[in-house]
Amino acid sequence: MFINTPPMGWNSWNTFAEQINEKLVMETADFIVENGYKDCGYEYVIIDDCWSLHDRNADGEIVPDPEKFPHGMKYLADYIHSKGLKFGMYSCAGPLTCAGYPGSYDHEFVDAKCFARWGVDYLKYDYCFHPESTQGHYLYKRMAIALANSGRDIVLAACSWGAENTKTWIKETGADTFRSTGDIVDSWESIKDLCVSQMKVAEYNGRGCFNDMDMLVVGMNGKGHVGLTGCTTEEYKTHFAFWALMGSPLIIGCDLRNVDQTAHDILKNKMLIAIDQDAAYRQPFFINWARRENTHRVGDQPLLEYYPTENPIMARILSNGDVAIGAFNFSDQRRTFSAQLDSLGLGECTGKTLELTDVWTGEKQIVPHSTITVNLDAHQCTVYRASVVDK
Ligand code: GLA
After folding, report:
1. SS (H, E, C) 308-324
2. What's residue 288's pLDDT?
3. Phi, psi of 89 (to 5 degrees)
4. Could you tell me the pLDDT band of residue 307, with boundaries at 50, 70 and 90?
5. CB 176 less than 6 A from any atom of ligand 1
6. Cα distance between residue 89 and residue 47, in whole Å
7. Which of 46, 47, 49 is the best mutation target for the ligand 1 pocket, counting ligand atoms within 8 Å of the beta carbon and taking the most?
8. For 152-158, what is the mean pLDDT?
9. Does ligand 1 come within 6 angstroms of the Cβ of 212?
């Protein structure tokens, strides 16, 4: 299936892992609708690993665990659809899922039919336990073809964590999103590592198959399955803003029913969501580059590579001609960031400047002297939506 913008929704894994059940999923669907999340664009309610029994039935189908899901998956899908939301499930390209439940290897067509019958709209497809003799591009193609022949439109969210250089072959498989990272945990180190790693693969992102930076940890505050140290409010803001500027899927991972207002405010930041979901979906680019010598040589010359610095100023040109600009301080010290308008093509000769709207405070300012300057505390970010105005 082809989707125009990165999916937004909620997934059970980060907080609940094996502790999932029908009640939790239905209550979360209710919460999404009743508390303005659906209006913000969050629409997929996704059950991750651990939803089934360990054995398939006589027809070779995976059986939902009757203790966790007493009315079965069709009932749950119907409930979620009745709320105007979409239903997501999980399987794996190997014979077992990462948590050891049945995976879809060699059962792709049976499982795809079953998911379609239940009313599934989105399938997260993991990569544990795949036979060493087969390759990822082959297994993801097989499930994509099975889904496309299932009789229902089902988004395929590949989850091979970048293995086997996923980015170079995933677009040809028919997957709609691909996990370009290892698993996130609820700590600043994890967020920083994922952000820095993704700057080098930003150019693979785009319509056709979106880079998925993994589920959000905003609001977990150290609780739940991947809850670790937790993060500060500034760190959660940086996390959410980076995902939005990169155009990653925004899949909430906290227990929405029990988070504080600060988390709600971050997850519902409409300006950041609009940047993430911008209709043009242009690739982000980096304004500050660092030149590094690669160890490889071309003849006797070092091969030069250009990477964003570890503290990037990142931008994205939006569909209405505005520009999203974000400065991210991943370092542990307070730092000053500055960018010339020239680096966006808006040199002196154009007679233009930018009006900046801060996505967190809504404050507006005109860029003075063609230079945007911000001072950021450790782990902090600033993001502007910038409109072009006459000088
Ligand atoms: C892998 C995935 C996670 C989660 C677990 C479930 O680790 O990357 O996102 O789905 O499996 O077991």
Report:
1. ECCCCEEEEECCCCCEE
2. 81
3. -135, -175
4. low
5. no
6. 5
7. 49
8. 98
9. no
Residue type, 224: G
Q: Best substitution site from 16, 48, 51, 194 to test ligand 1's pocket, by max atoms within 8 Å of Cβ?
A: 48
Q: Which residue has the higher pLDDT, 284 or 70?
A: 70
Q: In angstroms, what is the span from residue 162 Cα to ligand 1's centroid? A: 13
User: What is the tens place of the pLDDT at every residue in 350-375?
Assistant: 999 999 999 999 999 999 889 999 99
Average pLDDT over the chain reads 94
Ligand 1 centroid – CA 100 distance (Å): 11
